[in-house]
Design a protein that fits this description.
The structure is a single chain. The chain is of the alpha+beta class. It has a single domain, classed as Ubiquitin-like (UB roll) (Roll), CATH 3.10.20. The chain has three helices and eight strands, in the order αβαβββαββββ. It starts with a helix and ends in a 7-residue tail after the last strand.
């Protein structure tokens, strides 16, 4: 297998939101544009853990929950060790929510 040729066949940057909106399967690419809250990030691997995704946004799993949003409105909680595959069907964006300490209230 000629890796150089394979890499030339890959698209440069895939925008996950655009592919999800159009219900198109996400191909393998050199980079993926993902949205976390209101910010966009370009990552250079097809999957990341919850902790890695939070780190992009400057957040940590001890202070924030991470949610994966799919086209059509479905939402899934992503645990810190869960691996998210950006080439999976319908992955649209991610949101974070601060963990509130409600003990003693």
């Amino acid at each position: 297998m000629d890796t150089k040729t394979d890499n030339q066949d890959l698209q440069d940057v895939i925008d996950l939101e655009a592919f999800a909106r159009e219900s198109k399967p996400v191909p393998k690419a050199k980079s993926y544009r993902i949205r976390i809250d209101k910010e966009h990030y370009v990552v250079h691997q097809p999957s990341m853990t919850g902790t890695e995704i939070l780190a992009l946004a400057g957040k940590t799993p001890d202070k924030y929950h991470l949610y994966e949003h799919f086209h059509g409105g479905q939402t899934k909680v992503i645990q810190p060790t869960d691996r998210v595959d950006f080439t999976g069907p319908g992955v649209e964006r991610f949101t974070t929510m601060k963990i509130e300490n409600t003990e003693g209230k």
